[in-house]
Amino acid sequence: MNTRTNLWYALLFLTLLATACEDDKGTTPVAMLEAQMATDIPADTGAVTGDPTQAPPPNYTLYSLRENTIIADADSNSTQWDIALAGTTILVNGGISGPGQGEAQIVSGIFENITQAPESGYVADSDTTLAIPKGSGKGWYNYTGEGNPPNAIIPIPGQIIVLKTADGKYAKMEILSYYQGNPDTSTPVFADVATRPKGKYYTFRYVVQTNGSRKF
Amino acid sequence: MKKSLFTYLEFLVLTVNTVFLLSNNATAQTATIAGKVSSEQGKPLGFASVVLKQTNQGTTTRADGTFLLKDLAPGAYTLLVSSMGFQQQFQDVNVTAHEQLSVDITLPELAVALKEVVVTATRTTRSIDDIPLPVDVVSARQIETIGSLRLNEVLQEQTGLQITSNHGTGLMMQGLTSEYILFLIDGEPVIGRTAGTLDLSRLAVDNIERVEIIKGPSSSLYGSEAMAGVVNIITKKPDSGLSSSLRTRYRSYGTYDLSASAGFAREKFSASLFVNRLSTKGYDLTDETVSMTAPPFQAYTVSPKVAYRFSDAINLSINGRFYTESQGNTADITVKDEIFRMDDDGRQQDWNLMPTLEVNLSDKHHLQLRSYTTGYRTNSALRYQSDGTVYDESYFDQFFNRSEVQYDWYINDKNVTTMGVGHTVETVEATRYDDINAFRANYGFVQHQWIPNEKFNIIAGGRYDTHNAYASRFSPKLAAGYTVNKWLKVQASFGGGYKAPDFRQLLLNFTNPVAGYSVVGSSLVQERIAELQAQGQIEAILIDPGTIETIRAESSIAYNVGLHISPGNKLNGELNVFRNEISNLIDTAPIARKTNGQNVFSYFNFDRVVTQGIEVKGSYRLMQGLDFSAGYQYLDSRNLEDVDKIKNREVFNRDPATNRTVAVSLAEYGGLPYRSRHSGNAKLFYTNSLHQFDVALRAIYRGRWGLGDANGNGVIEAGNEFADGYVLLNLALNKNLFGWLTVEGGANNLLNITSQNEPLLPGRIWYGGLNINFSDIHQQ
């Protein structure tokens, strides 16, 4: 009886080993790229909400995903920046927005589980539509209106932005917060507009695949 | 306002005088009848009714069964004695002047205690025991005991019903909202809904005889809207002779209610008038805004009734109702970046007139002709407080007429057939609609009840509706009951329900003046989009209007399976399992994006929804006069499209504290908004017939319910997307002082519960009042 059980275990072990070897043969072992965090990136914090026809043009914050840093406004007509943020609007460096190769699409899923960028489906910013669509429930965020917490911009869970950087590299990013300090949005402090941290401060995590492949 | 109050008081003084005058006339007589009413077992019967058939003079017995009829003219009389659960007895008596006659009357118990009757389930008067459907009846006595002012307060305490606040005070039945519930007054539909909700606080309850609640689709009899069920308000008919009453109550938040009624009935002619005035100072649960949660209002209801019996065979009755309510609120409105304080005034009115001619061709053939006309109108205006100029003004004017012939054929005691045909016209004219719009519909229905033997009871029927704006429909229904033994009955029913697209869904043409989005009814969408495109207002078309089909009626199929148990006299239990499968649910979706960044929405049939659950209730008589009852509903509601997405792991949520994103599991799914998975009640009613008082203590539980999606994943699952449940504790005390005068008092929401998600809960409400019954003065 005992020997038989041992034999079963041995067989099982061998089978597992064989499968593992097969896997190894099929894919090149790549260490998962480490996600980078961008915290409290201001996005036109000086602007006043109101009638859009009366307001001055939005002051975009230019951001380089590759360098993980804010780029000076003077370099707006360059490929140094990858995304630009103003309020809830996100531009990518391409199309009408910049000289780069930037394009994007939104993929539904869990950030870690998106291990490969889609081959097609990317769009660039154009006159009629942005690569990352504007509006509540249409792109990356939901406006809660009279819900709970009220009048808040909450990133839609599972909406991952997969984009091409200005130099055409694939990147994935997940926006975590629109408020300064990445606050817990389920607390009474956040629910109360008077004590809620300031908005238009982005916290997001992202991965750029610099080798040009679609693998993350 | 003050002036009209005085007019009422004058009217009441007049009524009182008339009543006293009549009783003074009677004092010229001198004979007296004293007596005692008891059961065959010798138990004294309190509150039995004793009436002299010849004069309609009468009284009720005291708790010890005794009664006294004074000031009678000498002569021969017939005493008619009746008490609930006992057989009615006639006793001939002869009284001479200055004599006190003494009579003792015993009443034999009814083999089967007389049960309540219902008309809503079959459109004919049937004993509640003969209806194999989930039926609830709330009696006038219950309504009076709990001190309710409006229908929502009555329905809130019933098992399986929830009150919701959405464009008015609405109702939820079997997991379906007000839109899918048909509300009737004496069998005729109440109109005037806002976004599908019929505001129950428009309906005063002091003139209600009983409320019948039929759960499960009843479109086979009533057509559109009766998809979740029917609530039928049966109003009081005047008692024989002259009667009048006055009831006044004062509540917290400056709420003042005054009801007066006067009635007159003889063999052939009867007439009555009910008048109610309700006003409140309102309350505010949101300090940060200037608008009040419940604004002050005053409302008047006037319901006259006349009936004339031409012969035993022909009876004509005309009922009417007039209602007007005006309210005033304040609002801060942003116009071009500047905030203005404005007066927000609204008025709503409804009226109806229902003449009914009943013709009994013979014992077996009964004909009813009804022509019902009703109207509903709202006006609202926003005016700048600074100079009184109008910022926005709107109105809504609805008219509805229904003419119907119903024929009941009582073939024999085993078979009853009911059939009818009718025609309806409905028009709406409103700020948000382009023209006067009219709907026309014809329908026919037939139903047969077959009671082959003591054990079986079967009802089958169907209704066919044709309409000028959407496709014709057939709604079937089949119900069967089986009496297993003395204490157990089982029943099952199957039915189809539908809800027609309303004016709003077909013909709305609305652009929000503040936010700038537009909503267009499905019949207008092509035309309107073309128009907006021509004006250069459209940035992008999201759904090609050419591909949009006309919306279809929402429809359902539903199953109800239940059982009743009554072991012994003290315990009663009921269980009902239900499932409603709804398809073609109508909702809005964006069809185009405007250049101002806002969307144009229209109505579509898209979702499939299921609501299912179990309802259990029971009552137990703890001792004579003390009754305990409890009820519970488990409700599961789901949008099947959402459920599919969750099963495919396509819906995500993020922990707001840790920012970790995970796929939503089916266990987390909270179903449709506003539905509480768990709800129930427990009630204790005590009646002391010796000291003539009663106490009603009720606990109403509403479990946590979903508010709506907050994190944008389209479903309700995260903690902050739910509102916490609560328990309301309501206490009512009524003490009868002199027979004609009852004092009442109590508190609703004793635990002082408030919730930011429940605008209907201002906190604890105290009340007190007086109830005067002039017909009782006359009797004593």
Structure overview:
The complex is a heterodimer of chains A (216) and B (780). Chain A is 13% helix and 28% strand. Chain A has 216 residues and is α+β, with helices and mostly antiparallel strands. Chain A has 2 domains: 1-27; 31-209, no CATH class. The radius of gyration of chain A is 22 Å and the shape is globular. The model of chain A is unreliable at 20-29 (pLDDT under 50). Chain B has 780 residues and is mainly β. Chain B has a domain at 2-107: Immunoglobulin-like (Sandwich), CATH 2.60.40.10. Chain B has 8 helices and 46 strands. Chain B has a 22-stranded antiparallel beta barrel. Chain B has a 5-stranded mixed sheet with strand order 10-16-17-14-15. In chain B, strand 23 and strand 24 form a beta hairpin. The radius of gyration of chain B is 28 Å and the shape is globular. Mean pLDDT of chain B is 88; it is low at 1-28. The A-B interface holds A 50-52, 54, 108-111, 128-129, 134-137, 141-142, 144, 147-149, 152, 154-159, 174, 176-177, 182, 184-186 and B 336-337, 539-540, 596-597, 599, 650-654, 656-657, 659, 661-663, 707-713, 718-721, 757.
